[in-house]
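Exercise 3.2. Students should predict the tertiary structure of the chain below and write it as structure tokens, then compare their answer with the key that follows.

Predict this chain's 3D structure.
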Amino acid sequence: MRAILILCLSFAAFGCLERPHLDLGEPVWFVADESFYLGCDNDPAGYMACYAVRNHLIHQGVNEWFEYFPEANRPVALILWPEENVPNGAANELIRLKIEKGACDKPDDPHPACYRWSQDSRGRNRPPEIIFDHPDAINPSMVAHEFGHALGRDDNDVPEWQYSVMSYTRPFYVAPVDIDLLCALHPEVECPPHVWCVDVDDLCRCPSDSVEDGMAKFGAGLIVCR
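Answer key:
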């Protein structure tokens, strides 16, 4: 549930590594590492059913962000495996999906998932990664949180009371405030109508909603302005 940056070495030849930027006007490509389907061989439902479920969980988490956008200008994300299926000239860097036990942990600080980007020993950028500690950690909220890091968001970059998916301790779901910040980070995409977030009593609502309707929608996690 955190973003991990492997800091670049301060050699003049390398320069400092910045978080990869996604252009949401172009497809976002996920490439599943072989480890992402770990355990599917032994799934009682069969390998292909397990494969489909894990891909679906990724799409659910990503769609928590993208379903706010009207269908006509909704960003697109695709999962491919193996990497050779990614078309040449893709505008966005690939995001690898992996399962790697303990990859997100620090001593006495275990984490079920993380987003990581780094350079190799020659100063070349590695593809960014969303890593899960084990298959059970792959769920829509966790995916939405880690994908939020790929979109440029940080943990707890809004007050806890706004119930942002980027909460470090309670990542519920993508809230309207998350979309407002996403739009500030990604001017290349046409954003949905503005959502009002005023204070803890008002919470969030679409401009056309009454306070009562807004609070009811917010409580149900259904605020989508058209």
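Discussion points: The first helix runs from residue 47 to 66. The chain is about 25% helix and 15% strand.
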